[in-house]
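Subgroup meeting minutes
Present: P.N., E.W., G.H.
Scribe: E.W.

1. P.N. recapped why we're keeping a running log of single-chain structure predictions: easier to compare across weeks, and new members can see raw inputs and outputs side by side.
2. G.H. added today's entry (202 aa).
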Amino acid sequence: MVCGFGDIGSSISNELFNADILFVIIENNDHIAEFAMMKNYLVIKGKATYDDTLIKAVIKRARGKVVCSGDDSLNMYVILADKRDEPNLLIIVRGYKLDGEKRMLRAGANLVIYPLKLSGQQMAQIMGYSLKLYKHFRRNNIKLQEIIEENNALQAVKIKRRNGTLIFNPSPDILVNRDDSILLLVEERELENYSDLEEMPI
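Output recorded in log:
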């Protein structure tokens, strides 16, 4: 699902379309929605925050959701509503104010992206990955970068230390220790490559 068909939303939609990934756009502006339909995209006219039966049905089948509303407060509302109905939904948010990132992550967003840091193409690429939680259980003091590379993961989203400490968007140079949990974006075909990781329910 792509919420909002502005500059970023249209770029993401184009990349998803070219990659043959099925998606639906939610757009409240009638003129913009019609423009998206002219490109042969599937569009639902309405607000992403509406308690709409059709939108709820789409969310239940969605692999993930990209939120590009143009307003961090509205983004927060969408995140909270989606996580209430579908707690395992992968949610990627286009952020605007840097100080809002931690709040959106705590609300349930899996990634908060800033356009100056990441392109629409890369955001679309994320939708081809699965969110997997692993418990690292064999070795101590391993660089996160090694785990990312051996899994061909796109990135690590979060680390939970065995003492309960959470680290969002961890640096690749951070050390992972025995019994730490790691949330990774990984391609399905790469899930069995790293023998030191045990997949766990999210």
